[in-house]
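hey can u run this one w/ magnesium ion bound, need the structure tokens asap thx
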Amino acid sequence: MKSEQLLVLRPDVAGLEKAAGILQGGGLVSFPTETVYGLGADARNDRAVAGIFEAKGRPQFNPLIVHVADIAEAQTYCAFNDLARQLAQAFWPGALTLVLPVQADAGISKLVTAGLDTLAIRVPDHPVAQGLLAKFAGPVAAPSANPSGKVSPTTAAHVTAGLARRIDAVVDGGACAVGVESTIVSCVGQPALLRAGGIPVEALEACLGQSLLVDEDPEKPTAPGQLASHYAPRGKVRLNAAYAKVGEVLLGFGPVEADLNLSVAGDLTEAAAQLFACLHALDAMGAAAIAVSPIPDRGLGRAINDRLRRAAAPR
Ligand code: TXA
Ligand code: MG
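ok here u go:
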């Protein structure tokens, strides 16, 4: 249990120095990335990493993503093949996580990889995340900064609401621009999609000139975090709803009359950016039953539908 008041840091030099110092001391700091807020710890420090699992109530078999400053640093922890290098050069910094063989002498805590011989790694595209990585000068393990199974945070206020008293600080960098987590691609063997996310699959396939194997079966997750029930607001969720039934709140998409709307214009980028904030708002409203408009399953729509299916899954 940490102190009552969560330390909220400004994203300036002093705030980033303070945040980096907390990480160096083995503490837990939440920071903004372009996708969602992460809950960071020194990826080489077993005790610090254990603290992430404890703060989130996260099962220890579920490995974490390591955040680094650039490709050169990523290569000190992971073995890149040609396809991985191609993806990293095209999409980093950005909302793409690569799963690659971990270098044996990398010094990454076994808790980060949950004992796997692979590591999930990414270079975030956010000035505050980059500033923190520069000041800390090391690998930062960071899952999304929410209690396990709950809705991911896209503002510092979401982090405070979910994790105050469980972590040391949050750097407030405003709302996340992308709004859904990174796309996860395994480059161990044939490149495979493990989680739809902020970089559309179509863009990855265009870059590679080949299609990705798809592995999104929630019953058999290769990314062990892809549990069926996840991203769950408190209310019951009904998908592909043309309208709200009596007692339901409608989360709309496109020009429909709705209580909340992901994007009146039907814009998938805007909808992704609004998704988690809307789910948090539905919790704040006390919505017990939520109907959601249909969302096209292309581009960022694929990541949105993945999150909504898990939000609607039996708990
Ligand atoms: O956008 C994001 O990716 C955010 C920000 C903070 O970077 N992070 C994030 O982390 O979404 P988290 O812990 O919520 O999701 C990480 C996912 C989990 O599904 C986990 O199982 C998977 O990555 N993962 C981690 N290491 C893996 C590995 N070695 N092999 C396969 N999947 C892995
Ligand atoms: Mg998460």
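The chain has two domains: 7-214, 236-312. anyway lmk if its weird
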